[in-house]
């Protein structure tokens, strides 16, 4: 009987010890606070890094289709509470955490833009991300509407080392059309020169 009790105590001790070691390992792998950000109530909360909210298993690079949110929804509240500004570099994603900065690259022309996730969507199953009108303009996809893209996670907007592309300066439709034609002409010229050699 005493031998059996000693075995049970030893087993309990091993289980408790293994649990403590596991807890210390998990705690030591947690990123340390890098910066403190003010809260609405006047206190501060640490920014501990981390790129994903509910879905940590998501890959840092995703491929799929991108659409854009037009100017007609200007002022509509996004998931983070801010009004939608079509010229800001923002995007909607179904499961990347709000505040995540991603680099979106148009696979048709190679253009890319850095945007911050501020909204949820797109709610069309075949689409991966919705970008703002300004971001779509930079990607050269306004006339196409939907294009294949890669989405690469860069970091979190609260990290001072992570930046988003600048807001698009408003251009009149005629200027946009002229600029689009000029860029297309230049691309054709480059293609012709490269293919001629």
What does this structure look like?
The structure is a single chain. The longest helix is centred in the N-terminal third of the chain and has 28 residues, at 2-29. Strand 5 (100-106) and strand 6 form a beta hairpin. It is built from three helices and eight strands. Residues 31-58 have low confidence and may be disordered. The N and C termini lie far apart (91 Å). The chain has a six-stranded mixed β-barrel with strand order 3-7-4-6-5-8. A two-stranded antiparallel ribbon has the order 1-2. It is 30% helix and 26% strand. It is of the alpha+beta class.
Major sheet: 6 strands, mixed, barrel
Strand % is 25-35%
Strand-and-helix sequence, N→C? HEEEEEEEHEH
Q: Please, what is the average pLDDT?
A: 78
Amino-to-carboxy terminus distance: 91 Å
Low-confidence segments, given as residue ranges, are 31-58
Approximate helicity band: 25-40%
Radius of gyration: 24 Å
Number of strands: 8
The dominant shape is elongated
Q: Which sequence of strands runs across the widest sheet?
A: 3-7-4-6-5-8
Topology of helices and strands:
Elements: H1 2-29, E1 35-38, E2 44-47, E3 61-69, E4 90-93, E5 100-106, E6 112-119, E7 127-132, H2 133-139, E8 147-156, H3 173-196
Parallel strand pairs: 3-7, 4-6
Antiparallel strand pairs: 1-2, 3-8, 4-7, 5-6, 5-8
Keywords:
two-stranded antiparallel ribbon; 26% strand; six-stranded mixed β-barrel; 3 helices; 30% helix; 197 residues; alpha+beta
């Amino acid at each position: 009987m005493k031998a059996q009790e000693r075995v049970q105590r030893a087993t309990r001790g091993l289980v408790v010890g293994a649990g403590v070691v596991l807890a210390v390992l998990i705690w030591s792998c947690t990123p340390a606070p890098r910066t403190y950000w003010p809260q609405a109530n006047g206190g501060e909360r640490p920014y501990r890094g981390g790129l994903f909210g509910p879905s940590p298993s998501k890959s840092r690079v995703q491929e799929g289709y991108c659409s854009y949110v037009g100017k007609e929804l200007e002022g509509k509240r996004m998931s983070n509470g801010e009004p939608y500004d079509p010229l800001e570099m923002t995007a909607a994603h179904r499961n990347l955490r709000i505040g995540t900065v991603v680099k979106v690259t148009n696979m048709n022309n190679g253009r890319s833009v850095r945007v911050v996730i501020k909204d949820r969507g797109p709610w069309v199953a075949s689409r991966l991300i919705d970008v703002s009108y300004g971001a779509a303009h930079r990607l050269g996809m306004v006339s196409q509407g939907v294009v294949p893209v890669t989405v690469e996670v860069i970091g979190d907007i609260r990290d001072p080392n992570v930046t988003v592309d600048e807001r698009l300066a408003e251009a009149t439709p005629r200027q946009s059309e002229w600029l689009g034609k000029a860029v297309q002409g230049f691309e054709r010229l480059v293609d012709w020169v490269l293919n001629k050699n």
